[in-house]
Design goal:
Layout lengths: L19 H10 L9 H4 L8 E3 L9 E5 L1 E3 L12 H6 L4 E3 L4 E9 L15 E10 L5 E2 L3 E2 L23 E6 L26 E4 L2 E4 L12 E4 L1 E4 L2 E3 L4 E9 L10 E2 L4 E11 L22 E7 L3 E13 L7 E2 L6 E4 L25 E7 L4 H5 L4 E12 L12 E8 L13 E6 L1 E10 L13 E5 L8 E2 L5 E2 L15 E2 L5 E7 L2 E6 L5 E3 L2 E9 L11 E5 L7 H8 L4 E2 L12 E2 L1 H6 L6 E2 L2 E2 L3 E3 L18 H29 L1
Organism: Bifidobacterium apousia
Keywords: Membrane, Transmembrane, Transmembrane helix
Protein name: LPXTG cell wall anchor domain-containing protein
Length: 663
């Protein structure tokens, strides 16, 4: 599954505070009642923070929960409480990051003075112990292990580590990119290491000295104590000049979803952001300053490419938006401030002969939208903000037409090029690419020709999903029911699923209705449905034979898991795929090894080889399992010979009768 890619970043504040040490010592000197009142009720913390007022309780083992985010904007000073999550999750530009490794090092000051510890300078401390953890699909680490010698995860089966209780335990939290699968070049959904700044290291004590978070403005009334389950939110800030994010997903019922799962009929709100600056122009700094704008329509080009799994819903909204929120957004008007076009091919960048997208789409079934800025400079020059962005927002409807690009389901691409897109040496850089995806159900396989062609890709075949082989003409709809293509009973908001093989031979259904209302967890959250659909080919290119029979079965092994569990396991950009060993193409099926052994090339979906192939027989092939005798080969020859003998015998008999009559 993907997940990722598609998309976003934040950073951890550089320090939880070098003053933590002093605050902890002072808190330890204050004698307060050690009552166990509810932290959530009385002190502003959530119960899971385990905030306990009064002096440190050395018999309690502390815990550390880290949640890693990617973001477009800087963070704010944290409180060390899980209540921070509410502010973070309210920002659509923050998305959890999966498979990022962190080390928690217990440290001692090199000078025996805690205040001298600087987490940015490893000469100020010595490491006593080293712990390691890896973020799950929700970006969370709540299990830590003794780190291996290289700082990575230990051998499988190593017991989980516990942090010691009592005073004078000081730690530095540090991101370990070298050991993070999220940034590994072999990860098909890797994060761009150049795109995100490292989360800054932080220094803290466990347990963590803190005061109550209540709104009482009288400092004397603040209650001091310790957090025994410290929550930290390190963030990677997106450092590129262009970005694309998913802001929200609205179901066909009109409700905004709490998890970024999508099925056909849902609406996704996207945001494109191109950074601009004012008053600090420098040549070859890769930043576009207002003073560098020419107003000839080629200062910035932004292109958006939608797969067949998405369809524009409504109009684009284009504004200038300050990074600080002030001044208010200034709307930009099409044909006055910028131009908009819809080319049918990969558009040109600012460099002649160079395209906006490095990879041409393997199909014509995509939609391009191109914006060119600025045709007027009045608004952008009058916008009073040191740094701001061109922000384009729009809605796209998730269709039932599958992923024509074969990238990861409900996904699309964007790219930006601008007049100051140079490196420090003055070399022109390629357009900045972006890719987004959301959690969705996908079926992907290869569609190929016969062995004589070395299993070359066969584009153009169309496929549907049906309930079973007894009703091959009723197709799966986005509501989970089945309808004929012209069924008058089908609700107008229901989309019928289909997938068409692209030029690379990839067949990819996307946005399948596996997140349904028919099965729910006890808390009301949706569960993954099993599917149990059959696959049927409904259109076949000329010269090739349709298999003519439905194939079983498309069934999801993750059935029963909640949406939250799926996000936690696979990340926020996952493609949830079926158990392909259950999808049997019988005599028409080929394995990846059979394809490559015959000299064919592996077909990939989302940069990963597909697990199964559907092979087609040519109409001239006599060995097709469903071949009729009049399709060629020896069958027709035998029929012709037999036919000639019969005709000859009939003519001979007729001649004998005529001769007899004349006699």
């Amino acid at each position: 599954m993907h997940m990722q890619r598609d998309n976003e970043g934040i950073r951890l504040p550089k320090l939880l505070g070098l003053a933590v040490a002093g605050a902890t010592l002072l808190a330890g000197m204050v004698v307060l009642p050690a009552t166990q009142a509810s932290a959530a009720t009385d002190y502003g913390y959530n119960a899971e923070d385990d905030f306990r007022p009064g002096p440190l309780q050395s018999t309690v083992s502390p815990k550390l929960t880290v949640t890693k985010y990617l973001s477009l904007i800087p963070g704010y000073n944290p409180t060390g409480s899980s209540v921070d999550a509410a502010k973070i999750n309210a920002n659509a530009d923050m998305v959890p990051a999966k498979d990022v490794t962190f080390n928690v090092m217990e440290v001692k000051s090199a000078t025996d003075n805690l205040a001298d510890i600087d987490p940015m300078n490893n000469t100020t401390y010595t490491v006593q112990k080293n712990y390691v953890g890896v973020t799950d699909g929700q970006g969370v680490i709540n299990k830590w292990y003794p780190a291996a010698e290289d700082g990575g995860m230990p051998a499988k089966g190593t017991a989980e580590a516990a942090f010691p209780g009592g005073a004078n335990h000081w730690y530095i939290l540090q991101e370990n990119r070298a050991k993070s699968w999220a940034f590994n070049p072999d990860n098909p959904n890797k994060l761009d290491a150049l795109k995100y700044q490292d989360a800054a290291p932080s220094f803290f004590g466990l347990p963590y000295a803190a005061t109550s978070l209540t709104d009482d403005t009288n400092t004397a009334n603040k209650v001091q104590g310790y957090i025994y389950n410290l929550h930290l939110y390190p963030k990677n800030l997106n450092s590129t000049q262009f970005s694309k994010t998913v802001q929200s997903i609205t179901g066909s019922n009109g409700d905004v979803k709490t998890q970024r799962t999508a099925v056909a009929g849902d609406t996704i709100n996207y945001k494109l952001s191109q950074k601009l600056y004012k008053g600090d122009a420098k040549s070859n700094d890769g930043k576009l300053d207002v003073t560098e704008l020419k107003g000839e329509g080629n200062d910035v080009i932004i292109a958006d490419r939608m797969s067949s799994s998405l369809r524009l819903d409504g109009d684009f909204t284009v504004v200038l938006r300050s990074d600080t929120g002030s001044p208010k957004d200034v709307p930009l008007v099409k044909d006055t401030d910028y131009t908009e076009s819809t080319p049918t091919e990969n558009p040109e960048s600012l460099v002649s002969g160079k395209k906006m997208f490095t990879n041409d789409a393997p199909t014509s079934n995509v939609s391009y939208y191109v914006f060119k800025f600025f045709t007027s400079l009045d608004k952008v020059k009058g916008f009073d903000a040191p740094s701001f962005s061109i922000v384009i927002t729009y809605n796209a409807k998730v269709t039932g037409d599958g992923d024509s690009t074969g990238t990861d389901g409900v996904a699309n691409d964007a790219a930006s090029d601008f007049s100051e897109n140079f490196d420090t040496s003055g070399n022109r850089l390629d357009p900045i690419p972006e890719h987004t995806n959301v959690i969705n159900g996908v079926v992907a396989f290869g569609n190929v020709k016969n062995e004589a062609s070395k299993y070359a890709a066969l584009p153009g075949s169309e496929f549907r999903l049906v309930k079973d082989q007894t009703e091959p003409d009723k197709y799966l709809g986005s509501d989970g029911n089945f309808y004929t293509a012209d069924d008058a009973t089908k609700p107008t908001n229901v989309e019928l699923y289909k997938a068409t093989a692209n030029n690379n031979g990839v067949v990819a259904f996307a946005g399948l209705p596996i997140f349904g209302d028919t099965a729910k967890a006890a808390d009301g959250s949706k569960k993954v449905l099993q599917g149990n659909w059959w696959l049927v080919e409904t259109k076949t290119p000329n010269g090739w034979r349709s298999p003519g029979v439905p194939f079983q079965k498309v069934t999801f092994g993750d059935a029963g898991k909640t949406e939250q569990e799926i996000a936690q396991q696979y990340g926020p950009h996952a493609t949830v795929q079926p158990t392909y060993s259950e999808l049997h193409f019988a005599k028409f099926g080929r394995t990846p090894q059979q394809i490559t052994d015959a000299g064919g090339s592996a077909i990939k979906f989302n940069n990963v080889p597909v697990e199964t192939y559907l092979m087609h027989y040519a109409t001239t092939d006599g060995d097709s399992p469903l071949a009729l005798p009049l399709t060629g080969g020896r069958g027709i020859l035998l029929l012709l010979v037999v036919g000639a003998l019969i005709m000859g015998g009939a003519l001979y008999a007729r001649s004998r009768r005529n001769n007899a009559a004349r006699a």
